[in-house]
Design a protein that fits this description.
It is a single chain. The chain is an alpha/beta fold. The protein has helices at 22-25, 33-40, 54-69, 93-101, 117-130, 154-157, 217-239, 256-266, 277-280, 287-297, and strands at 3-14, 18-21, 44-47, 78-82, 107-111, 137-144, 162-174, 182-190, 198-200, 213-215, 248-251, 306-313, 317-324. Helix 4 links the parallel strand 4 (78-82) and strand 5 (107-111). Helix 3 (54-69) crosses helix 4 and helix 7 (217-239) crosses helix 8 (256-266).
């Protein structure tokens, strides 16, 4: 039976020029390179300039993804930006990206699911594209997490960085089997009873300020390993595949220990796991497309490979997606 799948046809990413090493952070907060690497696997992160808003990062990643797909901004009819660090409270980053790209009037909006945002955004784009409501969609994860840091809190400020990644999503005809190119299955979750484990202590309707990121790291770690593993299993079931079928695992790049914990729990071959956390740190919704682009560019992930993605972030939100590139 013929079906329409939403397929990733182009990938692009962008990282701000400034690199902040662990040694740099040790100059402003009580920490060290050894302390950070031992607990997180992070060696460095990128930091946006003061005059470089989230939309600039998103546009740069989008242009690369469009070029990779052989498309132009004139063909874009849907823009979804996953971000927790918008340029302004409103309008959406998607609206600003549409203007800066020079794309025609189209559907455009932001998704706020923090680190899970890219997975959530891709699921929404899948609904539009697979049902014929869009033919050239941009799904962007773009974050400037350094804007939310309390630079006196060594438990959080060492973890995060800035960046953006984008995929172009277009319709492709398939046979309704796991061999099809495109999105095969999702599992999305949210548990608001865990809000106090990972949040920002500000907002327009409470403090009238942006606020700083706060996290109960040990508890987030425990929830991440268990919950992500469950969502991955559910996404694979929805896709009609087994975890062992997966060619590449592209996890949210939060912490190397979480990546390893999830992989061990599922019995994943560590050689199939894409990790960029050492170089990018946690870029929230941008981390999955950044890692995906890096692995495609270096030749590991190839067209036709079966890819599994997962993330967990504030909310708590979490989810997983299986797709064939």
């Amino acid at each position: 039976m013929s079906v329409i799948r939403s397929a990733v046809t182009g990938v692009g990413s962008f990282l701000p020029e400034q690199v902040v090493t662990n040694a740099d952070l040790a100059q402003i907060v009580d920490t060290s390179d050894a302390w950070i690497q031992e607990r997180t696997g992070i060696r460095q992160r990128h930091k946006a300039r003061d005059d470089q808003p989230t939309s600039d990062l998103a546009v740069a990643a989008a242009r690369k993804a469009l070029a990779d797909a052989g498309r132009t901004a004139a063909e874009v009819d849907l823009i979804i930006v996953a971000t927790t660090t918008p340029d302004m409270t409103f309008p959406s980053v998607a609206s600003i990206v549409q203007r800066k790209l020079g794309a025609p009037t189209c559907i455009g909006f932001d998704v706020q699911a923090v680190c899970s945002g890219f997975v959530y955004a891709l699921s929404i784009a899948d609904g539009f594209v697979a049902r014929g409501m869009a033919r050239c969609a941009l799904v962007i994860g773009a974050e400037e997490m350094t804007r939310l840091m309390d630079w006196t809190d060594r438990s959080t400020c060492v973890l995060f960085g800035d960046g953006a990644g984008c995929v172009v999503v277009e319709p492709r005809e398939g046979q309704g089997t796991k061999a099809d190119q495109g999105v095969l299955g999702f599992a999305l979750r949210c548990d608001g009873t865990k809000t106090d484990l990972l949040y920002v202590d500000g907002g327009p309707a409470t403090t009238g300020t942006v606020g700083h990121l706060r996290m109960a790291g040990n508890q987030v770690f425990r929830h991440a390993v268990v919950n992500i593993a469950e969502a991955i299993t559910a996404a694979c079931a929805a896709a009609g595949i087994e975890v062992a079928d997966v060619d590449w695992f592209v996890p949210h790049q939060a912490n190397q220990r979480i990546i390893k914990g999830v992989g061990d729990r599922l019995g994943l071959d560590e050689n199939k796991v894409i990790s960029t956390v050492a170089l990018h740190a946690n870029t929230s919704a941008a981390s999955i497309p950044l890692a995906l682009d890096a692995a495609i560019r270096d030749g590991r992930i190839k067209r036709g490979d079966l890819v599994l993605m997962e993330a967990m972030g504030g909310g708590l939100t979490w989810g997983a997606c299986a797709f064939r590139l």
